[in-house]
Amino acid sequence: TPAPSLILIGTAPPAPESILPLAFQTRLLPDGGHPAIRLMKSNRILIDREQVIKDIFDNEERKAFRTELAVSIPGEITSIAVDGAGRMLYGGTSSGLLIRWEIPAEGQPIFQEQVRTSPDPRAVTALCLVHGDLSIAVGDEAGGVSTWFDVPSKSVPESKKLRRIHVLKAHDSPLRHLVPSPRGKSVMSVSENGSL
Which one is predicted more confidently, 123 or 104? Predict the structure, then answer.
């Protein structure tokens, strides 16, 4: 089957820099809805959600929600990732933090936690969810790659906290991309100098 071709119908003026996202994530959910997460300048995150509601006769009603999350942290958010269910949002920062929020069906995102990803303040440069969204892989400006997993909290056993589980072989230049394997626990990492 030939690849689909791109047909240019017209042109539009370039979007003002202030509205272009620095990063973008979306997922198609089983109910047909899809959250779209946009990382904007000044640590602003726009979350657009669509909820599809079906009645007993299979008639659909679609509701759209937009939430803006303004994050006050040391440094800038440098990368984002959202899980396959569109319920958990992760952000990595220039000061080496990994932050997690819950995205409810309606209303404001709920801060869950933040953890430091390394002893020194290395910028987080890439994030991706792996192993069926059970773990999150974190790449940093020193070329490091680690995976994090929810483990029961020592102080509150019914609560879970992110903990580093694995430190993978580091690159010799800053990490730029992480790509999860769709079939397993593997993750492919790409550094600034192109090494895999």
Answer: 123
- Summarised one tens digit per residue, pLDDT across range 31-57 is 666 778 888 888 888 888 877 778 889
8 A C-beta contact, residue 45 and residue 92:
no
CB 132 within 8 A of CB 126: no
| Backbone φ, ψ for residue 17 (5° rounding) | -55, -30
C-alpha radius of gyration, the chain, whole number: 18
Is residue 20 pLDDT above 70, yes or no?
A: no
**pLDDT tens profile 72-92:** 887 899 999 988 888 899 999
Which residue do the tokens 């659909």 mark? 60
User: What's the CA gap between 127 and 162, in Å, rounded?
Assistant: 14
Residue with tokens 């997922």: 27
Query: Is pLDDT above 70 for 133?
Result: yes
Q: Three-state SS string across 10-70, please? A: CCCCCCCHHHCCCEEEECCCCCCCCCEEEEECCCEEEEEEEEEEECCCCCEEEEEEEEEEE
Asked if 55 and 65 count as a contact pair (C-beta separation under 8 A), the reply is: no
| DSSP summary character for residue 87 | -
